[in-house]
Hints:
Layout: H1 12-22, E1 38-39, H2 45-50, H3 53-66, E2 78-83, H4 85-93, H5 106-115, E3 117-119, E4 130-131, E5 143-148, E6 155-159, E7 163-172, E8 175-180, H6 191-196, H7 202-211, E9 230-232, E10 239-241, E11 250-254, H8 257-262, H9 268-278, H10 294-300, E12 303-304, E13 327-330, E14 337-343, E15 346-349, E16 357-358, E17 365-367, E18 370-374, H11 383-389, E19 394-397, H12 403-407, H13 414-418, E20 426-429, E21 437-439, E22 444-448, E23 462-466, E24 470-474, E25 481-490, E26 497-502, E27 505-506, E28 511-512, H14 535-543, E29 546-548, E30 554-555, E31 558-559, E32 566-576, E33 583-588, E34 596-599, E35 601-606, H15 607-610
Parallel strand pairs: 1-7, 2-8, 11-18
Antiparallel strand pairs: 2-3, 4-5, 5-6, 6-7, 7-8, 9-10, 11-12, 13-14, 14-15, 15-16, 17-18, 19-35, 20-22, 21-24, 22-23, 23-34, 24-33, 25-32, 25-35, 26-27, 26-28, 26-33, 29-32, 30-31
Amino acid sequence: MKTRIYKFTTSTLKKIGVILLLGIMVSGCVEDIGDSYTTFKGDMIYSYLEKKPELYSEYIAILQKAGLNGMLSAYGTYTCLAPTNEAFKLYYKSFGPKFTIDSLSAEQIDYLAKTHIVDNQYVTDELQDGVLPNPNMNKRYISIKFTSDSITNTFKILLNDSSQIISRDNKVYNGVVHGINRVLRPSEAQLPELIKANPELSIFAEALKITGLNDSLLLIEDTKYKPTKVFKDEYNGYEIVNPASRKYGYTALVETNSLLKRAGINNLNDLIEKAKEIYPTGANITDFTNRENSLNIYMAYHLVNKVIFLNKFFYATDAVKGFTPDEFIETMFPNRIIRASKVNNRITLNHDSENPVQIEETGGKTTVNGVYHVLDNMLIYSPSVEQMLQNTRIRFDIVSLFPEFANNNIRGSRDFMKKNNSSGDRFGFEDGYIKDVTISKDTRLIYLAGKDGQWANYQSDELMGLGSYDITMRLLPVPPGTYELRFGYSANSLRSVTQIYVDNKPVGIPLDLRIMANDPRVGWIIDSSTEDNGVENDKMMRNRGYMKGPDTYYYGQTIVRNYSGSLRRIIGTFTFTDYSSHTLRFKSVIENPQSQCMMDYFEYVPKSVFNPSDGTPEARE
């Protein structure tokens, strides 16, 4: 695993936290019951706990009753978040003075035991604010927050906002143990209930209810879905299986009452009137549940039908140092998107517009089907935001289009996938699993998460159609305007020849994905072999409908612009006159059951970027 650095805000307290984390843990009013980075030779997780009965005897009893003591005594890789005996005393007390371990049902015992075990090992210096990369054994994510006590200047790591790690990074043969001072109690509320439970979000919660949009945030899992598909990868012999589940998830970008009050909004009626000012086209529609009503529009732009945790907004794997890709996120305001950027180490929405909004890193909450993030400003789809998007190159990884990849921990989750199939990095999909993708009965559709530096892929991963494929997908919606649509891929001899369709109309001649960039039909020449650093070569390639890869991510140690397998195909120039969705289709035109239609990323590039009036060449990033 690639070690991650901490990503904190620039506040003084967080700086203190980083220093303390890299040094020693300061014990404030809580007991420090272990040293950092201690390796207990000869121990498994269970034997480590057994040797500390004064601290963990209650959790040991829970594990025994749940039958997990054997698993934690065997080889594997786990993170155990072990509640102390004092933590269990507080937990039992919350149910009444006579409540004990014997008061718990078998189901409660099982749930408690599994809540505190995460598949894969995570020491604290591999983590950042957000969630642990893998869910626990109950398939629930655990939030993690690095903070400091403003009074004692004590560094703290909090799980689910309430449980503090008080003994961290105790490494054993089959993983790591972190001692915690509160039993974890993940919220079982659906996202609207979680929002409603916070009194500081009462105006936002009321608006969700009156617009009926709370009903759009209730689904948890597709219980009719049953994984059935298994086939072999022809090249490596891997067994490729379906994802184990098909979950739903949501993200709400919320504004507190305090924030709204600063804008002169003290109650729901004030927000209704403000929404009319912001979105006047719906001011005369009195039915709040109408999707064209002003308040409905306002709230819908705050909602996303996929779960995006704080540390999963960006997938900058293999990115050149200093470059963080934008992510473009479709909202429930039909065909409107948000641009998410990392600006000064903060997640900023709609950067470069007159209405930028930052996400407060300390305000998010997770629940059974989603997460909400607290904003520092009112989120508005204003004319300035529209103009910013109309003048921004919109590059998006193909799987960012589909909520199923985020909601089921598939996108970029190699740690999770290693435990679920023989390849360690891929899944196959039946028609219907991905809502916005349709495939023919002869199509084998697989996702490959990739490994660091393994492939010349944007954000490491790719989607692939095998054999006689026919794949149609819904593209990211963009504002009205003229755009050059590009398809990014990596070429090699195992690929296919594909006909591309836009809105079901064929565009150009079939694209041969087998042709490398240095083939004379493409004409790629590495920049260092030219006298003008590739300027004329870029023009020549564009005349043939191709572009080099960007200079902002790597293939191994090579920037992909300098790799002859990385290409962008210019599909065509399109003018969109309104806000609507569009489709892209890939159809095989050769008979080869092993041929690969590799799909990596797309770009919508406005005319002001690819052909500016002053003749400035487009940035290579």
